[in-house]
Amino acid sequence: MKQHIYAAVLIAAGMIVNNAAFAQPVADCGSPNPLSASTDFGSLAGYGADGCIQQDKIYRSFDGTLPASQPVTIATLLDIPIVGEDTHTVTIGAISNPAGSGAPLVYTFSYSIEIDPSLIDFASRFIKEVTIGADVPAGTTGVSVVKNVSDAGGGLLATLTSIDGTQDSISGLHESKLLISETITVNPGAALFSSTDTYLQQVAPLPEPASASLFGLGLAAMSFSRRRKLPASA
After folding, report:
1. Does residue 181 form part of some domain?
2. Does residue 234 fall inside a structural domain?
3. Are β-strands 52-54 and 27-28 bridged in parallel, bridged antiparallel, or unpaired?
4. Nearest partner of 48 among 36, 58, 56, judged by Cα
5. Which of 124, 134, 133, 130 is nearest to 149 (CA)?
6. Which residue, among 171, 101, 102, has the nearest Cα to 132 in the 3D structure?
7. What are phi and psi of 65, to 5 degrees?
8. Are strands 36-40 and 168-175 parallel, antiparallel or unpaired?
9. What are the CA-CA distances from residue 43 to residues 31, 65, 94, 169 (Å)?
10. For the segment 7-17, what is each residue's pLDDT rounded down to a tens digit?
11. How many angstroms separate the Cα of 40 from the Cα of each of 30, 92, 134?
């Protein structure tokens, strides 16, 4: 019995050591609100390859031609343990182009998003769907957002396009890290209220209480059977 206890302790200790090995000193992405980090592009770019963390996501290597003061919000919108899903968003704030500017405003925006590898259940989590959308004034034309979604190795998975507020998405993914590259175009006289990247993550649900109870009864039955087979002491 003692041997089994020692083995369990060693396994638990090994999990803690392995978890610590993966731990990374990553800064928070913005405001201390645990569900929403409001910041700006310049601050995010300043984190460089070390990146920043919001909930269980690490965002790295922000780059592009957006103004340093451009508002960006990184948030966790939904967490439904029963179905094992949660939603994460990256939202760029308002951009407008005066009618008399004579030229379109074109900005680029890129970053990586990955699931925190220090999580004990890291292997059971994956990003399964990516959506792009934009919020524009009614009747607006001349606003487009084109988003390339690539895997961790740089292989292109999809090119998503939002035209004047439409949405586009890709589903059926099974990725722990994605590379994102966007081009935002706002023509003269047009405006963009916001542009949002949405990531739907699958988290394998915990065993149901009934299943856990059956598992416990099974262990108890095995233990009882083992005791009955032990020879009587002299």
Report:
1. yes
2. no
3. parallel
4. 58
5. 130
6. 171
7. -110, 10
8. unpaired
9. 12, 14, 17, 28
10. 443 334 343 33
11. 8, 9, 18
What is the H or E stretch that residue 82 is in? none
Comparing 2-6, 139-143, 196-200, the range with the smallest average pLDDT is 2-6
Q: Residues 152, 159, 92, 57: is their CA dihedral positive or negative?
A: negative
Question: How many whole angstroms separate alpha carbon 180 and alpha carbon 186?
Answer: 20
**N-terminal to C-terminal alpha carbon distance within the chain:** 20
3-state helix, strand, coil in the chain (%, to 5): 25, 45, 30
Parent domain of 93: 2-226
Confirm if 150 and 199 have CB atoms less than 8 A apart.
Answer: no
Distance CA 232, CA 234 (A): 6
Number of domains in the chain: 1
pTM (two decimals): 0.76
Spatial CA neighbour of 186 closest among 100, 97, 72:
97
User: What residues does 75 pair with on adjacent strands?
Assistant: 36, 89
Please count the other Cβ atoms lying within 10 Å of the Cβ belonging to residue 214: 12
For residue 233, tell me if it sits in a domain. no
In a domain, 37, yes or no: yes
| pLDDT, tens only, 158-179 | 999 999 999 999 999 999 999 9
Distance CA(3)–CA(23), nearest Å, equals 30
